[in-house]
# Entry
Amino acid sequence: MAKPAPLDLRRRYDVVVVGGGPAGLGAAVGARDAGAEHVLVVDREPEAGGILQQCIHHGFGLHHFKEELTGPEYAQRFLAQVTERGVDVLTDAYVLDVDRDRRVALLSQDHALAPVDAGAVVLAMGARERTREAVRIPGSRPAGVMTAGFAQKLVNVAGYLPGKRVAILGSGDIGLIMARRLILEGVEVVGVFELMPHANGLSRNVVQCLHDFDVPLHLSTTVVRVHGRDRVDRITVAPVDEALRPVLSRAWDVACDTLLVSIGLIPDNELARHLGVRLDPVTTGPVVDSTMQTSRDGVFACGNTVHIHDLVDMVSQESYLAGSAAGGFVTGRHTPADNVRLTPGANVRYTVPTTISTDREHTVYLRVQKPMTDCVLRLGDVHAKPLRYVVPAEMVTLKVRPRFLEAFHGGTLTVSVETREPASTKGAAA
Amino acid sequence: MRYDVAIVGAGVIGCAIARELSRSLATVALIERDVEVGLGTSKANSGIIHGGHRAHDGTLKAATEWRGNQLWGELAKELPFGFERVGDLTVAFDEADLAVLHETLEQGRRRGVTGLELWDAERLRREEPNLSHEAIAALHAPSAGVVNPYEACFALAESAVRNGVDLKLEHAVEGIDRDGDGFVVRTSRGDVAARFVVNAAGLFGDAVARMAGASAPTIRARKGEEYLLDKRLAGYVGRVVFPTPSGESKGILLIPTYDGTLMVGPTAHWTADHGADTTDLDTTAAGAAEVFAGARRLAPGIAEADCIAEFAGLRAVADGEDFVIGATEVAGFLNVIGIQSPGLTAAPAIAQDVVALLAAQGLELEPDDAFVPGLEAPVRAAQLDFEELARVARGDPAFGRIACRCERVTEGEVRAAIARGARTMDGVKFRTRAGMGRCQGGFCAWRVMSLIAEATDTPIPAVTKKGGGSWIARVRTDAAERSDAPDAPDGTREVAHG
Amino acid sequence: MSPDHEHEHDTAHYLCIGCPLGCRLEVDAVDGEVVEVRGNSCKRGKEFAVQEYTDPRRFVTTTVRVEAGRWPRLPVKTAASVPKDRVADVARALHELTVAAPVAMGDVVLADVLGTGVDVVATRDLPRAA
# Structure
């Protein structure tokens, strides 16, 4: 097969989407559907699809496609939608800057440095993994300490193995998925070590990736030292006390040649920072309004670059909205400005968006600080939604309907999650 | 052939000596056990070019520090490496400190150090508003600077090689035998004959001297832990900041590195086993606590939460604490050992002194008219404006592909680094900054590995982080069973059970 | 109740995968038939426990070697779940497999893997190398 001809890049696009992962693809589809004629997706990898291409496991798409798909299948379906809509996808390319007039400085091998004028820009750069450095594990600095996602790329895309005897720090889903993946490839997984008293990943992954293969999960335990000069030869682990401090007197050594680090994701916001859009200190992603617009006019953001999602389906939903708003922005569709500010209250870390409008329906995403059962999600005193449980690992969504706000005349609503009062009290109050 | 000079050790000292010798027609072999130059102490230090006023009178340190400081300015004009005279401050918190600052000021002036100035609290606050308001005064030395020490080392080595020095990598020295009026250096990859041997073996300096039958003070390893903070804090201080020293240690410093990252450290403690052959490059919880407590004393706003990377380096410390430079009882064998702080600063002066010592022992130094002092600077995409970058990318599309997004390093830069001698992930990282940013290589590591493998015709499992057994990936179990599979250096062809 | 020697009693424990509550499920069975599920807090939990006890099944996802493809590995999955105790065997069987590019998503790369009646299919298109 001949190398595909370089994309015939236009000088002007209605919408330029930065990032070709699930968020970027969803935004591109949304933008076209909202009437944007020329849409460009820029991706830094040789092919679009983002991290989905290396997530070969099952569990995607139940909400969006109503069937369970693997990551590559989910990506390919979205790529097909993008292609059908005539969206230009430029791979192996990188957005260096977006100036005040939304002129996008684009670096790519086929186009050197092309300036592209954009009617609107959608930031969809995704996330990066927290590293060993982020949690500051003392010890030596040998080869063999790597993020779970890097190991996933090595195994699933490149076709190599990260080591022979692997320990995993953190029980996030990527780490759990990699435990199973490595075992199926003949690698020994000696254990998963989790700082918190509960697993961070889905219980489905605890069962199917650890229990199924008798991989021990050490809760309330962390890695306190890495050993080995050239390559990891062992790690020291220790239980932690209630304040999450390691109890070194009870530490023990675990022989391994690899330490996978799976301790969470953070928004990849280098470009957002560079553009100077306002960032949320909690999510570290851009602050967005109810149309996913950042503090800069015509610059929208969606997906993990805004806040970390657990389900790609939610990313698709949010990104479609962002793309649709970006499309509306260039086609001159008028959307009433937000008139209500949301502030995180009890047991709520953050909300996305941070503002809403009383004239239309919104989906508000939020994350809690601590687990609770039999609780109620409150939107000021205008709406209360009972919830069986909340956990920090699972994003909570709240549909805000205009009728909730009919009688609301304030400017700010506090979003909180509280323990439900016993039914009898409630009855008495009513 | 027999070389005029064999230098053992390609750290910054060995490289500086080799490059100084390459100005002449003398033939030189630079012998290094590692896969690249400068992977030891020269890579893991504070990267400070000291002002020249601090070393105690009467020491070799004092005799070379200020001269070295001045020579770095010359070198930076000729060779491409990051260097900037940002100045330094020694901060006093009480009257006793202030008395020390006065002494240091006088000492510096006697030595000819220019620009030294005592700042009062008000001036200090104006110049460095983020420093502790408890500080009562500071000594400002505008001559001090920061350097990317690994870049300097790479550039010195590359310049030396361009001018005729034979660089012998992965040649571990195993013995040094007398041979007529010269020596045969026995290495893991064969013998190297030379009229003179210069021992610049760093932590192994005493062991190498013993091989030649020369005496040398014991070399011990004093470890320094350093902590790099998030780019968010770039510009938090504009100068290198020292506390007023007490004893041998210079204390915990704030170092605005040449690349704009704020670094704090170093600790100064003997390694656990006290030996120079130690493998102890561990950072420790105690070390971090000490560093951040020390840093917060200087600038209370610094928090451990901003740490994005940490490392430890080993100082080669000779008994008596001073440098050991000069002839030994074995004619033709010179020691250049115990080069701890301010060794980086002193390196170019030490190199000149060693060349003079060799001349005194009979080495002929006929100038090489073909000597080329300069080297072309590598492209740094992150420092180019768009038009310049576009021009480079049009010339070579590899400069149109970003390899490392955190530090915005192009594939072209990675390829160029490999062409200039990088063989390992660390070698690429320290030449290009690929993998040094927030994601610490999570995204770019595979691309960089692939580029090294392709450019050096090496199978992926043989690509290492820093040479030796620091492999990163191994072949799949099923691939290992196939006959055409490349061997992994660690022998991973054995079938893993599972 | 007196000990019952005629019938085989069994108790099994599972962690429910239905939602993040992660209920600890306890299953009582007699002669392989589930008679009681405890610890669940919803219907799905009970269904899961019964399924896990009587016929635990899993999807297998892995990669196979590709010749002349744009990438060296092709991601694949079992088109339906296979018995849990065959998962490792299925993965191993796929180690031996090499397919030739181009491949289309959904292509069967191995039919009826290990006689399970389940096909292994490609989960993406993989064109030939440029």
The first helix of chain B runs from residue 12 to 21. Chain B has 13 helices and 23 strands. Confidence is low (pLDDT under 50) at residues 483-498 of chain B.
